[in-house]
Design brief:
five-stranded mixed beta sheet, binds adenosine monophosphate, 2 domains, BirA Bifunctional Protein, domain 2
Length: 411
């Protein structure tokens, strides 16, 4: 026997019985984005590798070890997108979106790819939804995008979610703090994990995120960026907090919050779910005021987030019932097949969900199949070509096929 195939490591099939729940998340997100004027944008699944090296940052885990990078036949280095913000900024610059009224409010949904070690809630192909408000430095923009994710979590009924909020300050103001943090790390370097020690110079902030015990000990008395914000950054952060209050979004301040991408400035946030295990973040993001200019565009402040659909589904841990169809058509014999096909086509054009037997089943088998499809009505075409309609409850009654659309649509 020929060898069977399996999905590649870290990936999964979304089977029909799992689609309804996923669709519910996407539909809720679409609705929330639409209500606030965030319009859908779609970028390719792969981009120039350099876009991520420059956009996400060379010192990040993503760029150092998690990218699916390959060379195309023309010798270009391409990478399956590990995240959505850098591609959207590329598109903003490429299409001159800075000439549009600002901010440009965008939303997206789709697959992303990271070569991570697979575990519950962590995959090599996963799906994110996200929103970006590009072209405003107002705290109003921070609060609007945060509210979108907060609304989504609430409307879906994701349990046990907490919003953690922090600020990284602007890039320039951060330098002095980073020097202080680096010397703290250097002075205790023996207690740090190897990974953190290797990155003291290039990415010291990530030490806050380490799950290594020694490192955590060192970080307990590390200086916090929140205590070192410039006056302007500190005022911006205060306004974000105040406006979140006005929008009735609850949060906790987390002075140790950091994110895995280099581009963040000022506000950062993370929605964490206590019902999830090690991979407890449902979604997060922040401000990235320097990214667009880093990608060759004009100086443009921006803020956004991404949330993982699989994490949301894990946290919800429920199956949405697949809705039944409107009508199943059963035929007494081959003579009625043509009539059934024509009727099914006509009713589907009316917008009804209609199925019929495709496997040559007996009448009994067809009725069983009708039951499996959870059809609210079954129509049987008898030997004489007469049609009988039966609801889930009640007696069968004779009907004229012409009256069916009205009868069923009223249902
Ligand atoms: P990030 O783009 O790293 O800021 O991640 C944003 C969100 O995407 C996270 O909060 C997760 O919900 C989700 N996510 C990131 N990486 C993965 C992954 N490897 N597998 C599943 N979900 C992920």
């Amino acid at each position: 026997m020929a060898e069977k195939f399996k999905v590649p490591r870290g990936t999964f099939d979304v089977l029909p019985q799992q689609s309804a729940e996923r669709e519910r998340v996407l539909a809720a997100a679409r609705e929330i984005f639409g209500r606030a004027g965030y319009r859908n944008i779609q970028t390719p699944s792969f981009e120039d590798t350099a876009l991520f090296e420059r956009g996400v940052g060379k010192s990040t885990d993503i760029v150092r070890k998690e990218m699916f990078t390959f060379e195309d036949k023309g010798g270009r280095s391409l990478t399956l997108r590990p995240e959505g913000t850098a591609p959207i900024c590329r598109s903003y610059v490429e299409h001159g979106m800075h000439k549009l009224p600002q901010p440009v409010k965008l939303s997206y949904a789709g697959p992303f790819f990271r070569h991570e070690r697979p575990q519950a809630g962590r995959y090599r192909q996963f799906h994110q939804i996200g929103a970006e408000a590009i072209g405003s430095d107002s705290p109003l923009a921070d609060v609007e995008v945060i509210s979108l994710l907060s609304d989504l979590v609430e409307e879906l009924g994701v349990p046990g979610v907490e919003l953690r909020l922090g600020s990284l300050g602007s890039l320039e103001a951060r330098t002095a703090y980073l020097d202080e943090l680096k010397s703290h790390l250097r002075s205790r370097s023996d207690d740090l994990s190897e990974d953190v020690r290797d990155r003291i110079e290039i990415n010291p902030l990530r030490a806050f995120d380490s799950d290594d015990e020694g490192t955590q000990g060192v970080m307990k008395d590390a200086p916090h960026l929140l205590d070192h914000l410039s006056t302007e950054d500190s005022e911006h952060f205060a306004e974000v907090r105040e406006l979140l209050g006005a929008a009735s979004v609850e949060y906790v301040i987390d002075p140790t919050l950091v994110r895995g991408l280099d581009y963040y400035t000022r506000t950062i946030f993370s929605f964490v779910c206590s019902h999830l295990g090690a991979q407890s973040e449902i979604g997060g993001g922040g401000r990235y005021d320097g990214l667009i200019s880093q990608l060759g565009g004009p100086d443009t402040p921006a803020v956004g987030w991404a949330a993982g659909i699989e994490r949301i589904l894990l946290a919800l841990d429920e199956e949405v019932e697949i809705p039944g169809i409107d009508l199943f058509i059963a035929v007494a014999g081959p003579d009625q097949r043509a009539k059934a096909v024509a009727l099914a086509a006509e009713l589907r054009h009316h917008g009804l969900a209609v199925e019929m037997d495709l496997a040559g089943r007996s009448m009994k088998g067809q009725l069983k199949q009708a039951h499996r499809t959870a059809a609210t009505h079954t129509l049987t075409l008898d030997e004489a070509g007469a049609a009988h309609l039966k609801g889930v409850e009640g007696e069968a009654r004779d009907v004229e096929p012409a009256e069916l659309p009205e009868l069923l649509l009223r249902n």
